[in-house]
Design a protein that fits this description.
The structure holds two protein chains of two kinds.
Chain A (H helix, E strand, L loop, with lengths): L1 H22 L21 H9 L16 H30 L1 H4 L5 E2 L7 E5 L10 E11 L2 E16 L3 E6 L10 E3 L4 E3 L6 E2 L16 E6 L4 E5 L15
Antiparallel strand pairs in A: 1-3, 2-10, 3-4, 4-5, 5-9, 6-7, 7-8, 9-10
Chain B lengths: L1 H21 L1 H9 L2 E2 L8 H21 L9 H11 L3 H29 L7 H23 L4 H15 L5 H9 L6 H33 L5 H4 L4 E2 H26 L24 H8 L1 H6 L1 H22 L5 H29 L1 H24 L6 H6 L2 H13 L16 E6 L2 E6 L13 H9 L1 H4 L7 H8 L2 H15 L1 H15 L9 H13 L16 E2 L9 E2 L14 H9 L23 H11 L6
Antiparallel strand pairs in B: 1-2, 3-4, 5-6
Classes of the chains: A alpha+beta, B mainly alpha.
């Protein structure tokens, strides 16, 4: 089978040209004698018939095919492959590298935090003394690619004031798949409207749906009683709390 | 060894399996084993390089698509972001930008090769026409692509093209509005051009290219007489090697320009401002120049922009038939070369004329400057939702010179020009020839206004500093040789002999402006200068009259007023040449606190300029802008 294929291959390489020579006779329309290499994947009936339809006007027979030496052929193939690959891969690789931009570059999502990355949210006075969580927006200049949007809500947090003016801050994004959790007074639970994750007042998991408890955020209180939060987003869906970006 | 052999068998079996189901071997065979009568030739590479460059455009285009945003508020902005912020963005955009231009050149070469070889003749007529269709599609891609960055150059170049569409008989207006997505340029111009550029035209190009290659393969390469006797070669690998080397050469050229020049991004399109450098891309420049001929202009735009190019395309399309006549082929070749020569000639004169056109050169410089400036501001401050143009509109360094040109340059100069780099001139007829003559300034050159250099030249070279006043008629001459002029005449020598004292006086006065860009002010010099201003005493002699004898000044160090001045016509120097001082001065120079009605030749701008414009102008003049 293999041997036969090889013969046919060789035959095609040279035979095609032989046939061309036969074709090049003065007649305008000529039916080619079909050569009998049709019993194989390299079925060239169609190719032959194409030649037969060509109105060929030249009368001189074609010269014999250039007998390529194996060495020249090898160099030709190697050169073609190398040059061809270089030419096509360069724009492709450049394009892919460009596409990788989000992974190659750190992009902050907002601007306007203090030197340590804290945003001012509210004052101790505005937080209930019984530790009930309250939701607050964080306002900063939102950055989106080339744009800056002044004074936008860049995230929301739940804050609880604990005895001794200690602050507990939660990122209100559910660590399951990123919906916003809602504190429910009646059950004293943080509930997620998407897949029913629930969390206790301390942010601990109350069911097996979320992979971890609510993500706490760093906070600080200054001399004027202003509460500052270092806002971060965390990877959803995994057990380990890891900041994004 | 055994293993390898078995592996080989398995591989073979797998390929056989695949071939049985897909017939890929025939396909590969068909694609590669094209016989090339006369052997592979370098002159056959152009078609392949064109296909290659198109592939490059598809690849880079898709990636750029992933970062581009077509709207008037985001097009320039997203391209800025690609070009200046995103990793490898400049590289990908550069390749896309220069590959588009390479395509134009390759298109020309391919066309000329086809004509010279006579490859348009029977039985290849249809393929020739398919090639012409492809040419139109590529031209369309260039035209639509040039607008997408929404920068000054692209915007105004494309505007001309759509206006040409608008003069098409009968359906012109409708066509133009369809292309623009409305009666004017806007969001929908970009969305439509983008859909054409990234969707419709490339799809058409792929389709017609497939047909073109299919028909080409049907007839094979056109072999010249001299090559006929040479041995037959095959497409693979002989011709493929040449094609690949040529493609690599084209790519290297594209990369060279990308690294050397980089794709340009001029300032964001500003529809509110005249742009004196509206030109198409270089490959359409010949057409632009053609339309400028007086004779062509007289025949009307439709004639020059539609009928003539249409007729030329018509002749080209008829070349297969013309070629049948005895001298037809020679005519076709001659026609093509004449076309090429004509286009080259027109391009060269267009470039030459623009090179000599001051207004054009200045406009191009401004567009380029605004591109850099907008990118710098965007990088520093971010772009507001109102777009990058609003950054420029609020930037004193960008707007100041324009306002200077509009309001000040009819009398003043700025470092010898009108603020925008052009020495004002007018055209006069001299012995039947048109000659450019500089307009004379009639007021001081404000290029160095408020600087140490300015103050020193006022104090020691008054008549030179205000020399242009001589061109302003009797009143100007009177003002130029007024009281201050006399004081300088009497004291210039003394001041020059007291270098330290002069330096102090200058430093004291310049410190009054509070200009951040002139800081730091030397406190010792300022203190010394204050004493000279007040008492006129120098280390070596003294002034005929001290400054405070005439000028009122309350120093900006918080100390008491040095003098209340001598009244109208003696400008108050409190905060001299600072923002507040200059603002008030420009509003009403004839005010008692400045020149007073009798000693003033400058119009007050209180009513002539909006507060916002005045602020931008003054901020620019006093150097108060982001650097």
């Amino acid at each position: 089978m293999v041997a036969k294929g090889r013969i046919v291959w060789e035959h095609l390489r040279t035979g095609m040209v032989l046939r061309l020579m036969e074709v090049r006779v003065p007649a305008r329309r000529i039916i080619l004698p079909k050569l009998s290499i049709v019993d194989h994947p390299f079925d060239n009936t169609e190719a032959l018939s194409r030649f037969s339809e060509n109105p060929l006007v030249e009368t001189t027979p074609l010269p014999p095919t250039d007998p390529a030496t194996p060495r020249r052929n090898f160099l030709g193939i190697a050169g073609s492959v190398i040059c061809g690959s270089l030419a096509t891969l360069t724009p492709l690789v450049a394009g892919i590298a460009f596409f990788m931009d989000p992974l190659l570059r750190r992009k902050p999502n907002f601007k306007g935090a203090d030197a340590d990355g804290f945003l001012s949210v509210t004052t101790l006075r505005d937080l209930p003394d019984d530790g009930t969580p309250l939701r607050f927006p964080l306002v900063a200049d939102k950055l989106d690619a080339w744009n800056i949007f002044k004074a936008q809500v860049v995230g929301t947090v739940y804050l609880r004031k604990m005895p001794g003016d200690q602050i507990i801050a939660f990122n209100d994004t559910c660590p399951h798949l990123g919906c916003k959790v809602e504190f429910q007074e009646s059950s004293q639970l943080f509930l997620c409207p998407c897949h029913a994750s629930s969390f206790g007042l301390g942010g601990e998991q109350k069911n097996k749906i979320p992979p971890r408890g609510l993500d706490t955020l760093e906070s600080k209180t200054d001399a004027d009683g202003r509460v500052w939060i270092r806002y971060q987003d965390f990877q959803c869906g995994v057990e380990k709390k890891g900041a994004i970006g | 060894m055994r293993c390898r052999k078995e592996g080989g068998h398995r591989m073979n079996a797998l390929l056989n399996w695949l071939d049985h189901r897909t017939g890929y071997r025939t396909l590969v065979h068909e694609a590669l084993n094209e016989p090339i009568p006369g052997g592979a030739r370098w002159k056959y590479v152009w078609g392949s390089t064109l296909t290659f460059v198109f592939a490059v455009q598809v690849i880079t285009g898709f990636f750029l698509w992933g970062a581009y945003s077509p709207s008037t508020l985001t097009a320039w902005e997203s391209v800025y972001y690609i070009q200046h912020v995103m990793k490898y963005g400049a590289l990908v955009r550069g390749i896309h930008h220069f590959a588009a231009q390479a395509m134009m050149i390759l298109l020309g070469l391919h066309f000329m090769q086809v004509i010279i070889a006579g490859a348009y003749r029977a039985p290849r007529e249809v393929n020739f026409w398919l090639g012409l269709v492809l040419m139109q599609i590529v031209l369309g891609l260039s035209l639509t692509g040039y607008l997408l960055p929404w920068d000054q150059k692209g915007y105004y170049a494309t505007k001309v093209a759509t206006n040409i569409v608008g003069v098409t008989p009968v359906v012109g207006q409708q066509l133009q509005q369809l292309a623009q997505g409305g009666t004017t340029y806007g969001h929908h111009t970009l969305t439509r051009f983008f859909a054409l550029h990234a969707g419709v035209l490339p799809s058409l190009l792929v389709g017609f290219l497939a047909l073109h290659i299919y028909v080409f393969r049907r007839h094979g390469i056109t072999v010249s007489k001299s090559d006929e006797s040479k041995p037959v070669g095959t497409f693979w690998p002989d011709q493929v090697l040449m094609d690949a080397v040529a493609c690599l050469g084209v790519l290297a050229t594209i990369l060279f320009f990308t690294v050397w020049k980089g794709a340009e991004l001029t300032g964001p399109a500003d529809t509110s401002d005249a742009y004196a450098a509206a030109r198409p891309e270089w490959y359409f420049l010949f057409l632009f120049r053609f339309l400028k001929f007086e004779a062509v202009d007289k025949m009307g735009l439709v004639f020059g922009a539609l009928y003539v190019p249409g007729a030329i395309m018509g002749v080209i399309a008829l070349m297969p038939f013309i070629g049948k006549w005895k001298l037809g082929h020679r005519f076709n070749v001659a026609f093509s070369f004449a076309l090429l020569a004509g286009a080259s000639y027109l391009t060269v004169i267009a470039l030459k004329e623009d090179g000599a056109d001051r207004n054009y050169q200045a406009a191009v410089k401004i567009a380029e400057f605004e591109g850099h400036r907008a990118a710098k501001l965007a990088h520093e401050f971010g772009i507001p939702p109102t777009g990058a143009l609003s950054l420029l509109k609020n930037d004193a360094l960008t707007q100041g010179p324009k306002l200077f040109k509009r309001y000040c340059a009819s009398c003043h100069r700025f470092d010898g020009h009108n603020g925008l780099g052009v020495q004002p001139f007018r055209e006069i007829e001299e012995n039947g020839k048109k000659v450019l003559v500089d307009e004379l300034a009639t007021a001081a050159d404000l290029g160095k206004f408020g600087s140490r250099q300015w103050i020193e030249s006022v104090l020691t070279d008054y008549s030179v500093t205000f020399a242009p006043l001589k061109n302003a008629g009797d009143k100007g001459i009177k003002l130029q040789s007024g009281e201050m002029s006399g004081w300088v005449k009497d004291n210039a020598e003394t001041l020059k002999n007291n270098a330290e004292g002069l330096k102090g006086l200058v430093e004291f006065l310049v410190a009054q402006s509070g200009r951040k860009d002139l800081e730091p002010f030397d406190p010792t010099l300022v203190a010394a200068g204050k004493e000279i201003f007040k008492g006129g005493k120098l280390a070596n002699g003294s002034l005929t009259a001290s400054c405070s004898d005439c000028h009122a000044l309350k120093p900006n160090d918080g100390t008491a007023s040095l003098s209340d001045g001598a009244g109208s016509g003696y400008p108050t120097l409190t905060g001299y040449a600072g923002k507040a001082w200059l603002t008030n001065f420009v509003r009403n120079p004839a005010d008692e606190a400045f020149y007073g009605a009798d000693h003033n030749a400058m119009p007050g701008f209180e009513e002539k300029i909006s507060y916002k414009e005045l602020e931008l102008l003054v901020d620019w003049l006093v150097g108060n802008y982001f650097r």
